[in-house]
Design goal:
By secondary structure, the protein is an alpha+beta fold. It has 14 helices and 33 strands. The structure holds guanosine-5',3'-tetraphosphate.
Length: 529
């Protein structure tokens, strides 16, 4: 228990949302509260604009800037908070899913006007895989949104999680008057403010206090009393254990752009959110309090700028103490490596760090030693498990345009897929290489990088697949027969796992029905338990 104090201080989390719900704005307000930035707008300029461009070089340039804000660290109320950024651009969704394996909890931002959206659903599915504790922030209450009860019902139903309101809004849109804090029974009146120290809280003795009628008017006060009575009867007090188990999500209402409702969120977050948690490995569960260091790589960022051809591997520390210049064991390569310039991602500057503790994320300069899911230890052989791979959405055949450069192409595509840019499949019983990506953008990135970094020219030929399913079966013969029989739809992933590539939902469902001995999985794990 050498590092218990450091562990107890740390909170590592991510903010997730469907694009445009307000993730960047909320991030910025939290950083303002934590004193990590002084002015509004500091985070915004680093954001990948979702609609502005489809030019991948421009996006890469912005992504390059955003490395600096990949992990934002700030202190609040004696806690050291690591906020891991997740890309807003849909085409980088896989990056987000993997980042979620490196956090201990999340804050989910929902737009009060749009409610649950596509990306909200998918992100919550990933959280569910690990029972990650979730706090919900319902944003944009200053706009005419959905009825608050309907909205809660929609979130509960769609995201399959019980909600526990911590604050309750008084109207929305231009009639939005503020929120009632159900926990400490205070009223905060809505003022549009961008300051971090906005403290417009009105203490009231209880919900029947006449001050309420004075401040928000009799009609709204009566509605609020009715709402609160109903909520208190249904929900009672927050059961923190249920929140930590990922079963109940505390909910806050606010308006991030107006810095409203953010302080309540942060105060509850530091009070209830989990400290660095134990993590499963291929051998045993690793406790953060163990003396010996261990960690895993969840993201690799390559710089496309030819002047800075460096890669940064993002490693989450899971146990013990990471130290600069100390040799650690790279389990997959069975090799000891040391790092002279480990990098911390403080929001203000890139600093070389001397040490790091469980919950921290360290940037390791990499010349090709790492792939996603790699584990570092002080000698023990195990892999951290539960880092997911999901089915790509677009599939294309990789066509070599220059037979003289076949070797370079091979090497390049192996390395790029190690970084997690795309997934590589090889046609079953053949050599055809199939690249699967979440968005069109990645194909451009791959083509560009293969040419500029490996000197290999390629092109892509579209394939009519819509989903990859990983196959398992207790009946080896049946599985082999299936793969052979469905050869045009069968492939192996990079680790040699059998995969079925379906043309459409109809085909997929038909195969599932016709092959009860075979299990079709929609995600795969990089290292299995
Ligand atoms: P994202 O990272 O989840 O994609 O969302 P982001 O914070 O960029 O917010 C998306 C848009 O929503 C921004 O407007 C932002 O100003 C606005 N927004 C955020 N919080 C609130 C809120 O509480 N109320 C209202 N009414 N709007 C909010 P934009 O016009 O796209 O960008 P910008 O020009 O303001 O930068």
């Amino acid at each position: 228990m050498k590092y218990q104090k450091e562990i107890e201080r740390r909170r590592t989390f991510a903010i997730i949302s469907h694009p445009d719900a307000g993730k960047t704005t909320l991030t910025e307000k939290l950083l303002l509260f934590g004193g990590a930035i002084q002015v509004a707008g500091a985070v915004k300029s680093n954001k990948i604009k979702k609609h502005a461009t489809s030019d991948f070089m421009e996006i890469e340039r912005q992504r390059g800037i955003s490395v600096a804000t990949s992990v934002m660290t700030f202190e609040y109320d004696g806690h050291l908070i690591n906020l891991l950024d997740t890309p807003g651009h849909k085409d980088f969704a896989e990056d987000t899913y993997r980042t979620l394996t490196a956090v201990d909890s999340v804050i989910l931002v929902v737009d009060s006007v749009n409610g649950v959206e596509d990306q909200t659903r998918r992100l919550m599915e990933v959280c569910r895989m690990r029972d990650t504790p979730v706090i919900v922030f319902i944003n944009k209450m200053d706009r005419d949104g959905k009825n608050r009860f309907d909205l809660l019902e929609e979130i509960e139903k769609e995201l399959k999680i019980s909600l526990h309101p911590m604050t309750w809004p008084i109207n929305s849109g231009k009639d939005f008057k503020g929120v009632y804090n159900l926990d400490n029974k205070s009223l905060r009146l809505f003022t549009a403010s961008t300051k971090a120290d906005d403290d417009d809280v009105i203490a009231i003795s209880d919900i029947n206090d006449k001050v309420l009628d004075e401040k928000i008017g009799e009609r709204d006060a009566a509605t609020l009393r009715e709402d609160v009575e109903l909520i208190e009867t249904v929900h009672g007090n927050l059961n923190v254990e249920d929140y930590l188990a990922g079963m109940i999500a505390p909910v806050f209402f606010g308006s991030a752009v107006n810095n409203f409702g953010v302080k309540e969120l942060l105060e509850t977050f530091v009070k209830v959110s989990p400290l660095p948690q134990p993590r499963e490995t291929s051998k045993r569960e690793v406790e953060p309090s163990e003396d010996k260091f261990s960690g895993f790589v969840f993201k690799i960022h390559a710089n496309l700028d030819p002047k800075h051809r460096d890669r940064i591997a993002f490693m989450r520390v899971c146990s013990g103490k990471f130290e600069r210049n100390k040799y650690f064991h790279h389990v997959r390569l069975d090799k000891d490596l040391r790092f002279s310039n480990p990098y911390s991602f403080m929001a203000r500057s890139k600093d070389i760090i001397e040490d790091a503790y469980p919950g921290d994320v360290v940037g390791l300069f990499d010349t090709g030693n790492f792939k996603i899911g790699d584990t570092l230890t002080e000698g023990e052989d195990f892999y951290f498990t539960g880092i997911p791979t999901f089915s790509p959405e677009i599939f294309k055949e990789l066509v070599n345009k220059d037979p003289m450069k076949t070797k370079q192409l091979e090497k390049g595509i192996q390395q790029l897929t190690d970084e997690g840019v795309a997934q590589l499949f090889t046609q079953f019983g053949g050599t055809k290489k199939i690249i699967g990506c979440v968005g069109e953008l990645q194909f451009e990135v791959i083509q560009y990088r293969l040419l500029h970094e490996y000197g290999a020219a390629c092109e892509f030929r579209s394939l009519p697949f819509y989903k990859a399913c990983w196959l398992t079966s207790n009946n080896k013969q049946k599985l082999e027969d299936f793969l052979r029989f469905k050869q045009t739809n069968s492939a192996e992933d990079k680790d040699g796992n059998p995969v079925y590539l379906a043309q459409s939902e109809w085909f997929l469902n038909t195969e599932i029905q016709n092959n009860p001995d075979i299990e079709f999985h929609f995600s795969s794990e990089i290292h299995k338990a």
